Amino acid sequence: MTIKEQVQTYREELLEKLGKLVSINSARAESTSDAPFGEGPKEALKAALQMLDDDGFRTVNLDNYAGYAEIGSGEQLIGIIGHLDIVPAAKEDGWDTDPFEMVRKGDTLYGRGVSDDKGAVVATMIALKVLRDLNVPLTKRVRLIMGTNEESGSRCLKYYVEKEGHVDYGFTPDGNFPGVYGEKGMIAARYFSKETRILDIQGGTAGNIVCGKCTAVIPGKCYSSKKLADFFNNNNIEYSIEQGEETVTITVFGKAAHASTPELGVNAISYLLVGLREAGFQDPFVEFYCSHIGLNTNGDGLGCKLSDNYGELTLNCGIIHMQDGVIEGTIDIRFPVTMTSKQVMRAMQERLDDEGGYVEIRGGGEPLFFSPDSPLVSNLLDAYRIVTGDMETMPMTIGGGTYAKGIHNTIAFGCAFPNRDYRIHNTNEFVDIDELLMQAEIYVHAILNLMRI
Ligand SMILES: [Zn+2]
Known about the structure:
Number of helices: 11
Oligomer: single chain
CATH topology of the largest domain: Aminopeptidase
Bound molecules: zinc ion
CATH architecture of the largest domain: 3-Layer(aba) Sandwich
CATH superfamily of the largest domain: Zn peptidases
Strand content: 25-35%
Number of domains: 2
Radius of gyration: 25 Å
């Protein structure tokens, strides 16, 4: 039997295992003495380890933070690191089906986690079984590592590394095929107003989302309403203006997008504030915002418009709010994979302060980078190519962060196939059964390839 045929024999088993894991609501909940991330994540880990145990693998539960199953022998360790926790889901959010019941329509499965990342974990379970069926000598140990806190801080992986150390070669099936060799570094910052005539301003839902709606209250009669309307209309911006007795309330509707791709969104904060300046509203804070951020998403205004061969710096302003006369907002910067946070901060140094406002840097995280032709990246790419025949799509860099930043010698590989949107973290998350089987097949080849390095 070929590896492909071998994988196919586990089709029903894959569905059964995934259905069981999807039925456990493993979103982060209150921690208890033996459930560091709540009962759900603990139950999901217990169920997954039981499946692997029943299949005859050696399993270990690391105090309900993470767990693993292992086959093979030898000094070196290959790790496949997935996660069993999920982001919250509720039928009322607009799901067509119960997110905690895996529903099959044709060849497509629906439910929270069917793709991210329970589907990937189950595909890896099948890959381990096929690997064992092949009866080839496993000269390195192969470990399926399962965390339970990836979606809210990855403390599970930190705990795992403290107890078990790093891996020699690894991939996390929680990103994209045919592999992610670079993940941008991050800098979190905040800006504050020093002086402003704005009476109130509120907008945004999260620091890592492009602001989709922003409302400001300003004194009346101090700007040109025609110029403001022209600016919004010329830029195709949806807005509303409410004229009060002495104040004006302006709301701008933008378009949300992930902070790692701010250019795909329309930032309501930025359009509102730049619009006010265009309309002649004289204000020190508005000047500060427009000159330091404005409509750019590349850090130009803050002096950090940086790029390397692998991509450009991005900047997102997610939330703005005003309290006790001071405006405060979030800045989420993702910088190129070959740079350091120090370099980026140095570039911003001169641009952090003026009479209208100032920026405070809160913290930074370094990027992840492997050469695209390193053995890890090229062997994984080869596995993807053998199974899919897709020679066009190349490994990539991303602005988001995965487990790969938390454990050495690891990159994200799968589970998303090119140009596919599985609605992860969204309503009606789905995956095709054939894609899960193809994932399993790719992982078998990937492990065999890494075994030969
Ligand atoms: Zn994930």
